[in-house]
Amino acid sequence: MSKRINWSGVFPAVTTQFNDDFSINLEKTHQVISNVIRDGVSGLVVCGSVGENTSLTAEEKIAVTEVAVDASRGRVPVICGVAEFTSVQAAKVANAVRKVGVDGVMLMPALVYGSKPFETAEHYRYVAKHADVPLMVYNNPPIYKNDVTPDILISLADCDNVVCFKDSSGDTRRFIDVRNEVGDRFVLFAGLDDVVLESIAVGAEGWVSGMSNVFPKEGETIFRLAKAGRFAEAMPIYEWLMPILHLDARADLVQCIKLCEAIAGRGTPSPAHHAWRCQKTTASSSSRSWPRPWPTALNCRMSASE
User: Fold this and answer.
1) Angle formed by the axes of helices 117-130 and 87-100, nearest 10°
2) What's the CATH code of the domain at 34?
3) Which residues form the active site (predicted)?
4) Which residue has the higher pLDDT, 305 or 174?
5) Domain assignment of residue 161, given as a range
6) What is the predicted pLDDT for the residue at 272?
7) Which stretches does DSSP call E strand in the chain?
8) Residue 228 needs a FRET pair 20 to 30 A away by CA distance; which of 25, 91, 182, 274 works?
């Protein structure tokens, strides 16, 4: 398997849509995915943290993945999140979604139990050996506790199908450390919305984004301008969106993103992982963070990036 893949640009971590009884609304999920593709995103991540992976049964994960592959129709890469309690189960799920037609898997550390660095590395090594699919290593220590440090990632350089690293630690120095040791061996993805510009400046080639579910065109514009070195043009859009981008770094990011989708008419606000609708505190913080009116002066930057 090639060590290089064609993953670059903005990949929304798409939401899974639910009915009032918390069953999955596959039709609405298909619509949400189709809309962000229509709006120009470069790829998709389904069944990630924002997609409420751990709230889904094995059958539901496959159903959501099938919907994403169908909606994509080969136009953009589809990556499926894999978050399981054991390495063996993670490899089984990775192979199952590969058969559905995904282009890769975003693999989280083994859940619940803490692990030593060599154990974390062995988790990824096991799945890489037993799953015939390109792997994106997902690091999110505030949420998943186990930190995939640059040293751990670098130790996986001999695993041909470990091809990408998504970092949500917020520490952009890690990209430099990885580059210094193994060059461009891994495709680097920003994993936090509110440090994406900084991540691109130090080598990120892609962005797994929560709020690009709500602002896909703006997200792609920021990314394209920054990748072209036009940071001065990207900065006003980045500043305009920053209050809403901060919500992606909160512990209740799923509720915040889904509520913002509902405000924008792009989805429903109901998460499955808690048996209640978005509470007033989440609604209040999301509303306060909503961007101020769009400055007319930014229109030229949006069009110039296309």
Assistant:
1) 40
2) 3.20.20.70
3) 138, 166
4) 174
5) 9-304
6) 66
7) 9-12, 44-46, 78-82, 104-107, 135-139, 162-167, 187-190, 206-209
8) 182
Query: For residue 13, is pLDDT > 50?
Result: yes
**pLDDT attached to residue 231:** 97
Residue 27 C-alpha from the chain's centroid: 21
What is the rounded CA–CA span in Å between residue 136 and residue 229?
Answer: 26
Determine whether 126 is an active site residue: no
- Which position among 138, 144, 238, 258 bears the catalytic label? 138
Q: pLDDT for 208-223, tens place per residue? A: 999 999 999 999 999 9
Instruction: Please count the structural domains in the chain.
Output: 1
Within-domain flag for 3: no
Would you state the structure tokens that stand for residue 109, as one six-digit string? Answer: 């550390």
Q: Is 64 annotated as a binding residue?
A: no
Calculate the dihedral angle through the C-alpha atoms of 33, 34, 38, 43, rounding to the nearest 10 degrees: 40
Length of the chain: 306
Looking at residue 296, what DSSP letter applies?
G
Q: 306: helix, coil or strand? A: coil
- Residue 166 annotated among the catalytic residues of the structure: yes
In a domain, 124, yes or no: yes
Alpha carbon distances (Å) from 90 to 84, 131, 163, 276, 285: 5, 9, 17, 29, 35
Angle (CA) 155 153 177, round 5°: 105
Given phi > 0 = left and psi -120 to 50 = alpha, else beta, which region is 121? alpha
pLDDT of residue 207: 99
Q: Which residues, in sequence order, are CB contacts of 2 under 8 Å at separation 6+? A: 160, 163
Cα distances (Å, whole numbers) of residue 7 to 26, 39, 204, 206, 222 = 26, 18, 11, 7, 17
> Is residue 4 situated within a structural domain?
no
Q: Give tens-digit pLDDT for 160-180.
A: 999 999 999 999 999 999 999
Tell me, what's the pLDDT at 293? 65
Asked if the structure places residue 2 within a domain, the reply is no
